[in-house]
C-alpha cells in the first residue's frame, strides 16, 4: 500500500523547520512520497486579520529552492488552483479519490493540532487520514478536548524542537537581519532579490 504524507502550510516563507518536519515524516512514517501543499487562501489567518501572504508564485519558487534535490518530497499546487478558502479536508478528499488504495498521513505541528476542531469538517479529515503530529515551541503533541473525544488514528513525530517560524523570519527580514540560518542560503537570496518582506506590516 502506497504511503503518502501531506504537509500543508502557508509557507510565507518556507523555512528549515518545514524541511525538517517533512524529512522527519518521510523517514519515521516510511513514506513513499511527501507532498508539500501551499495554501491558496489560508482562511483562518485572513479571518484573524493577518496580512495576506506573498504571491503564490513566490511561495512555490521558495519551496522549490528549499527542497531541491530532496528525495521523496514533492510540491503539490492544487490548493493554489482551487477557488475559495483552502480547506484541508477538500485536499484530502481529492487525493483519496485519486489514490483510493493509498494510506494518507496528514502532517501538522502542535500549534495547528491544538486548533484542529476549528477546521472545516475536521471529523471527515480524521476519517480519511492518519494525523502525524510534531511538537512545537516546547509544546508536546496533545489533542484539544473535542479532538481527544473523537476516534482517530494518530502518529507522534519525534521532531527535535526548532524555534523557527515564518512570522519571526518576516520580522527579521523587515529589519534587514540575516535569515540564512533559518531558511537556508538559497531562499534567503530569493527573498533579498525579490525584496520580499521588506515592509512587514506585522503578524
Ligand atoms: N518550528 C516548527 N516546529 C514544528 N512544526 C512547525 C514548525 N514550523 C511550522 N510548523 C508546522 O508546519 C505547518 C505549516 O506551517 P506554516 O506555513 O503556517 O508556518 P509557520 O512558521 O507556523 O508560519 P506563521 O508564523 O506565519 O504562522 C504547520 O502544521 C505548522 O504547525
Ligand atoms: O481546513 C481548514 O479549515 C484549515 C484551517 C486552518 C489551517 N488549515 C491548514 O493547516 C495548514 C497550516 O496552516 P497555517 O495557517 O498554519 O499555514 C495549511 O495546510 C492550512 O491550509 C486548514
From TrEMBL:
SUPFAM superfamilies: Nucleotidylyl transferase
GO molecular function: nicotinate-nucleotide adenylyltransferase activity
UniProt pathway: Cofactor biosynthesis; NAD(+) biosynthesis; deamido-NAD(+) from nicotinate D-ribonucleotide: step 1/1
Keywords: ATP-binding, NAD, Nucleotide-binding, Nucleotidyltransferase, Pyridine nucleotide biosynthesis, Transferase
Reaction catalysis annotation: nicotinate beta-D-ribonucleotide + ATP + H(+) = deamido-NAD(+) + diphosphate
Domain Cytidyltransferase-like per the UniProt entry, residue ranges: 6-172
EC number: 2.7.7.18
UniProt superkingdom: Bacteria
Gene3D superfamilies: HUPs
InterPro entries in UniProt: Cyt_trans-like, NadD/NMNAT, Rossmann-like_a/b/a_fold
Task of the protein: Catalyzes the reversible adenylation of nicotinate mononucleotide (NaMN) to nicotinic acid adenine dinucleotide (NaAD).
Annotated family: Belongs to the NadD family.
UniProt protein name: Probable nicotinate-nucleotide adenylyltransferase
Organism of provenance: Azohydromonas lata
